Amino acid sequence: TWDEPSNRDFSHYKVYRDIVMIADDIMETSYLDPAVPNGTYCYNIRAVYSGGHQSALSTDAVIEHVQTNANEVIIPVTTVLTGNFPNPFNPTTTVKYALHEDSKIQLEIFNIKGQKIKTLADGNQSAGFHTIVWDGKDDNGRTAASGLYFYKMVSEGNGGRYTSTKKMLLLK
Predict the structure, then answer these.
(1) 83, 90 in Cβ contact below 8 A?
(2) Percentage of the chain modeled with pLDDT above 90
(3) Angle made by CA atoms 88, 168, 110, in degrees to the nearest 5
């Protein structure tokens, strides 16, 4: 998964594995590489904009893939708040994050004044990839106003504490 570019003339993404393009015309901010054999791989993303302009390759994301059976849960290498999609959004957006280990997490949304308006998650969660949908409503069930919001994730596990804050835009 990766963050969406802020540029409005965005067209699509290209995904590279070991410097070879493996997917084109990707519209979402995530990609699952199907049927890749066990091994270590370097992935990069390139944004393509209308008119054919392309970004530089992203920084390297090195992944070690080991699978022992089809029912195995894939554990991320690091804990990370990967972003939300779509952004800007109306009326819902999906927040994505990964936990390297079983952790106590708190995921909250704040308005531009720094006031907490919604708790999306508060408790223990297992290691793995997670998504939570925010419906644009506060903790009291009221629809949030158009504007800029911040979402903050705090995770605590045996490996330490992780904190990240990102922004999202609700447009009506």
Answers:
(1) no
(2) 52
(3) 145
